């Protein structure tokens, strides 16, 4: 049974998430990034990318099953029963998915119930997902927002606790950073099923693109939404753009660690300027929240282990 997919658009204070796609000339996307092991090992298998048959550049489709750490967060419209892709998320253990705080709240700032959301893993085409199958659309056990989270974007991070799911070649965790790091000037990979242009065009196939970490001063025009006093946010931008966008709120922003050649989760898309091709976007800095993430993981599932560089 095919279910219609529509994007759950989270719009607040005249802002919404939107990332720009690099032009082919500016894209850096080695076919070996995340594929072959680097010089340093990781504490457990994480952050790999599955090699695709051809080099994909210019912010176009991701290869099928290229990104095992990608999770999709789905909501079912109670009125018309349509399944809507709402946000992205990142697998970090067999039980835990990291996403943005606002992804587990509704547009009025009310926390969602676990029964209102579902999670898909190992997906590529949203149209091919069997949303009526409980083994495909997985049910969350608990939705955990950061204790300082204030809707819509203050301390914008959450963890979804799941029933244990098995890893495979196409489902597995991103690596986590081992410490705080300044990503200004770094090339970052963003993945998602979010809007691909400022008109709200929604892709069926998972997309990927490359962003730059930029100085936080470039996001100061967001005013109080961008908290410069407490450094839990980072600013991203793509200088040379084609006018398209890609990325989900809460989805993975990844850094390829050259020592491990594995993709490390460093940020979560939080919000961006309307129009999305003219201003930088703001992400939650995952490195700031490492102690909280580890606390939640250990307290909710003592058997769970995150993976990182040794």
Automatic annotation (TrEMBL):
BP GO terms, sorted: proteolysis
Gene Ontology molecular function, alphabetical: serine-type endopeptidase activity
Domain Peptidase S1, residue spans: 56-298
Xref: InterPro entries: Peptidase_S1_PA, Peptidase_S1_PA_chymotrypsin, Peptidase_S1A, Trypsin_dom, TRYPSIN_HIS, TRYPSIN_SER
UniProt signal peptide: 1-25
Alphabetized UniProt keyword annotations: Disulfide bond, Hydrolase, Protease, Serine protease, Signal
Protein name according to UniProt: Venom S1 protease 28
Upper classification of the organism: Eukaryota, Metazoa, Ecdysozoa, Arthropoda, Hexapoda
